[in-house]
Design goal:
The complex is a heterodimer. Chain A has four helices and four strands, in the order H-H-E-E-H-H-E-E. By secondary structure, chain A is mainly alpha-helical. In chain A, a hairpin with a 5-residue loop joins strand 3 and strand 4. In chain A, helix 2 crosses helix 4 and helix 3 packs across helix 4. Chain A starts with 10 loop residues before the first helix and ends in a 6-residue tail after the last strand. Helices cover about 80% and strands about 0% of the residues of chain B. Chain B has 19 helices and no strands. The longest helix of chain B has about 35 residues. The chains are: A mainly alpha, B mainly alpha. At the A-B interface, helix 1, helix 2, strand 1, strand 2 and strand 4 of A face helix 3, helix 8, helix 9, helix 10 and helix 14 of B. The structure holds protoporphyrin IX containing FE (2 copies). One protoporphyrin IX containing FE (HEM) binds next to helix 8, helix 13, helix 14 and helix 15 of chain B.
């Protein structure tokens, strides 16, 4: 490498900034990994985790969102269990129907139950859309929650 | 070993064209739900599209870095064996990912939808890259310009956040839905930030080379923006999840941190004039043209990104196609433009007769791409607004299917402009691949 035409005098300063940033990042990560979820939220049941696995195995996230995150071809499913006019039976009837662009799956009754359990437990964590959120003049939105 | 770096780029260009084609097929499925439903429904098509285009970004940046280290920065690579291994590992992973999608053996986490075991070799590839990069640069280059910092940061954080994206395999995370969800989106946000380090590093490198002026890569300002970017990479991710009931401080912090990027926005606006008044020789440089179009897209996309990072606005745009407008706007307008500039730069240095011969075609492609992209993004904006109105402002609940049908006509515009993007990309990337990069790998 040829000698540098324009040496950067700030090497020490740059190293200091990066060290500080990385230290801060490590502490931040620990806080997030331990405390991201409000304490009162229950852990998922085994059955729900099995349902989540089925949701992943069939890549439902490609079309459906939870809390607005996912692909956009299908509707959001965060509160599909508690929504008026929808619920368990409604979800179950969709699963093997192959309606519109939704693939025709072959879930057994037990698998359908597990998926419904997963979606019910997701439903209990909060709201989307969060219609009763409070919008503040500083741009912040205080969302309505189900747990402290 | 120049050859292997060029093979990375060849594979990247192939991924770009294939990925855009999958995008068009996915677009057709938006309009005709039965299209390829039996063989490749949207739950397979979307990962084929998204993973392939992300592959383009990562492979092209990686190949470029290896190439520039050897050819432009005159270092001797620490180990050509590691480079070879890295390439082979990534080729095998790419094949494995495709098999996993085609056979439906999914991992099913957004953006990482392949079978989770494939993560392991991908991770090994990143570690090989890291070892080779740092062993090469730390010894041979004393006083690092900012792009070397950015590339190094990109590799380290990519490796970390890629690992983090798989924390869901650990029960401690998986049993706690909101924690798991938060960490999942934390990793994605920072993952994108990491590949941006690789790509923006490339952009700074190119600017310095094309202008023949290293000061863009060394001054206080360059480092200030690098640190600001890193700060955002670390703490900004929660703007993806303002609406998710995590503990509020995480989201509050992300709001504050994201707003610091207004500094970048205003700085670009200030420098805009300088860019347009560049001398004729620069304006004639093809790479420079792509970099100028990047600045234009950075301006538009950063403005939109900053708006949707304000929780009040995000409340209405989240969960609509406005997010897709942002993600494709940035990955095509910004990342793809920079990386095409990089490929043109490489071909131009090694075989100037090729860029000269195809200059007209590449320029037509450039305009087709950029104009189509503009229309494409407008159609996504329109769909997003419609979906938002459906979610928040319609009196009687309209069924999802009817809202979707209402979007049909906009989706035709989306599809046609998507075809335009594919055409533009073909015009630009095909000659670069066939007449530039591939012959170069044989030299
Ligand atoms: C280089 C070119 C392209 C890049 C880098 C790119 C990138 C992306 C990315 C990152 C996503 C994920 C969006 C998100 O999760 O928010 C996406 C989704 C998508 N893209 Fe592209 N894209 C490209 C070209 C195209 C083209 C030409 C089309 C054709 C119409 C297209 C159609 C789609 C569709 C339909 C989706 C799924 C949206 C949904 O979830 O509903 N893309 N693309
Ligand atoms: C080249 C730069 C960037 C790229 C490639 C990029 C890419 C992406 C992608 C792929 C997503 C989609 C995630 C999803 O599917 O929900 C996303 C979401 C988002 N990005 Fe970026 N991004 C960039 C820069 C920025 C910047 C600078 C900001 C803010 C200052 C930002 C703010 C956001 C926000 C708020 C969302 C979430 C939208 C929502 O879901 O409500 N992005 N970005």
């Amino acid at each position: 490498m040829s000698p540098n035409p324009n040496p950067n005098p700030n090497i020490k300063g740059n190293r200091l900034v990066i060290t500080l940033l990385v230290c801060m990042f490590i502490i931040y990560n620990i806080f997030v990994y331990i405390g991201a979820q409000p304490k009162e939220m229950p852990i998922m049941s085994e059955k729900a985790i099995k349902g989540q696995q089925l949701y992943q195995d069939h890549n439902c996230t490609a079309c459906h969102q939870l809390y607005g995150l996912g692909g956009y071809l299908g509707p959001d499913l965060t509160n599909v269990i508690s929504a008026t006019g929808k619920g368990e039976m409604y979800v179950k009837s969709f699963l093997n129907s192959g309606v519109k662009s939704m693939p025709k799956f072959n879930f057994t009754e037990e698998e359908k139950e597990a998926i419904v359990e997963y979606l019910s437990e997701v439903d209990k964590t909060g709201y989307f859309p969060n219609y009763e959120a409070e919008k503040k003049p500083n741009g912040w939105v205080k969302i309505k929650t189900k747990h402290k | 070993m120049k050859r292997i770096s060029l093979l990375f780029i060849a594979m990247a260009l192939l991924a770009l064209l294939t990925g855009a084609m999958f995008g068009v097929l996915a677009g057709i499925q938006y309009i005709f739900p039965e299209f390829l439903k039996e063989t490749m429904a949207f739950n397979k098509m979307r990962p084929f599209h998204v993973s392939t285009v992300v592959g383009w970004i990562i492979l092209c940046a990686t190949g470029g870095i290896y190439y520039y280290l050897q050819e432009e920065l005159n270092t001797t690579l620490y180990s050509s064996r590691l480079l070879k291994m890295h390439f082979i590992v990534f080729v095998v992973c790419a094949i494995a990912v495709y098999i996993s999608f085609a056979t439906g053996k999914m991992g099913g986490r957004e953006y990482m939808e392949y079978f989770p075991l494939i993560t392991l070799p991908i991770l090994i590839g990143w570690i090989l890259f890291g070892i080779n990069y740092f062993k090469t640069t730390l010894k041979q280059i004393q006083n690092w310009p900012v792009y070397l910092w950015m590339w190094g940061t990109g590799i380290v954080f990519m490796t970390y956040h890629f690992t983090e994206a798989h924390f869901w395999l650990i029960p401690y995370f998986r049993e706690n839905f909101i924690k798991d969800f938060a960490v999942q989106w934390k990793s994605y946000g920072s993952f994108v930030g990491s590949w941006n380090m690789l790509v923006y590093g490339t952009s700074v490198f190119l600017m310095a080379k094309v202008k023949g002026n290293e000061s863009v890569a060394r001054g206080k300002k360059a480092f200030f923006f690098y640190f600001l970017g890193l700060f955002n990479l670390m703490l900004g991710w929660a703007h993806h999840s303002y609406i998710v009931p995590t503990v509020p401080w995480i989201r509050y912090l992300a709001y504050g941190v994201s707003m610091t990027e207004w500094i970048i926005f205003f700085s670009i606006l200030r420098d805009w004039k300088k860019m347009l008044s560049a001398d004729e020789k620069l304006k004639n440089n093809l790479s420079y043209q792509f970099l100028v179009s990047t600045e234009f897209w950075v301006c538009i996309n950063l403005f939109i990104a900053l708006l949707i990072s304000i929780p009040y606005i995000n409340y209405y745009t989240h969960g609509t196609h406005i997010t897709v407008l942002h993600s494709m706007g940035t990955t095509i307008g910004i990342n793809t433009s920079i990386l095409l500039a990089s490929v043109i730069f490489i071909v131009n240095r090694a075989m100037p007769q090729v860029t000269e011969q195809f200059k007209k075609q590449i320029l037509s492609g450039f305009w087709i791409l950029n104009i189509s992209l503009f229309v494409f993004l407008c159609s996504l904006l329109w769909s997003g607004i419609k979906r938002s109105i459906w979610m928040y402002f319609s009196e009687n609940p309209v069924p999802f299917g009817s809202m979707q049908e209402d979007l049909q006509s906009v989706m035709y515009v989306f599809l046609l402009s998507g075809l335009g993007i594919l055409t533009g990309l073909l015009f630009v990337a095909f000659p670069l691949l066939k007449r530039g990069i591939l012959p170069l790998t044989k030299k």
